[in-house]
Amino acid sequence: MTSNIERTIDAIEDYLANCKFMTLSSTKIIVNKEEIDELIRELKAATPEEIKRYQKIISNRDAILNDARQKAEALINEATVQTNQLVNEHEIMTQAYAKANEVVTTATRQAQDILDSATIEANNVKAAAVQYTDDLLASLEDIITHTTQLAVSNYNELIANLNSCNGIVKSNRTELHPAEDDDLESLGLDEETDANNGSGLNII
Questions:
Q1: Of 20, 56, 75, 201, which is most buried, counting CB atoms within 10 Å of its CB?
Q2: Measuring CA to CA, how many Å separate 86 from each of 72, 83, 106, 107, 110?
Q3: Phi and psi of 21, rounded to 5°?
Q4: In a domain, 113, yes or no
Q5: Burial of 110 (0-12, 13-18, 19+ CB in 10 A)
Q6: Rounded distance, CA 192 to CA 84, Å?
Q7: What is the pLDDT tens value at each position of the chain, 204 positions in all?
């Protein structure tokens, strides 16, 4: 049966796979923030419930062990009853004790076998539940890491584009006013400009 968290992870993967690539890029995609935020909220909501479900599976380990203990105690009690009957019914006490000890030994061995099997089964159930939960969390970690890296990359690219545009704007403004530079030189303002620059001021 597919869990809610698995379905949500599949939905995120499908969404990312269907996103369009950015212009002139084969690795960067365009993500709708509202849609990806909604998918992440669904994932956050599903995660605690899934973990609770697997915690219940792990808690079944105690139930298995308790059932095994009850069966073992029942076997020992039955063996004790048989021992008492043998002691009371047999005329030769030594034979009765020997038989009783044999019954108790067999019952104890069977009880230990039950406990050992139950312990192995409980540990297997716990290990499988822990591994499955860890796999789900690992998938979630990969998605969050990928989304974070994508956001940082897009932001850095935006800043680089803005800086490039700003450089072009400044260059264009300079080309629009070439005569002003000549006027400043003819008026002998270069020295004043140098002085202002030395004091941390720029004259355009």
A1: 75
A2: 21, 5, 16, 16, 20
A3: -75, 150
A4: no
A5: middle
A6: 119
A7: 567 778 888 888 898 888 888 888 888 888 888 888 898 888 888 777 767 776 777 777 778 888 888 888 888 988 888 887 776 776 677 777 788 888 989 999 999 999 898 999 889 988 988 888 888 788 878 888 877 888 888 888 899 999 999 999 888 888 887 665 555 555 554 544 444 444 443 333
What residues contact 89, with CB distance under 8 A and at least 6 apart? 96
DSSP code of residue 22: P
Report DSSP letters for 121-168, one per residue.
HHHHHHHHHHHHHHHHHHHHHHHHHHHHHHHHHHHHHHHHHHHHHHHH
Q: Is 29 helix (H, G, I), strand (E, B) or coil?
A: strand
CB atoms within 10 A of CB 32: 10
Structure-token pair, residue 39: 């998918």
Number of domains present in the structure of the chain: 1
As beta bridge partners, residue 21 has 29
Please name the residue that has the structure tokens 């808690």: 59
| Containing structural domain, residue 8 | 4-67+123-198
3-state class (DSSP) for residue 187: coil
- 14 in a domain, yes or no? yes
Contact between residue 65 and residue 123 where contact means Cβ atoms under 8 Å apart: no
* CA within 13 Å, CB half, 95: 5
pTM above 0.85, yes or no: no
Domain assignment present for 107: no
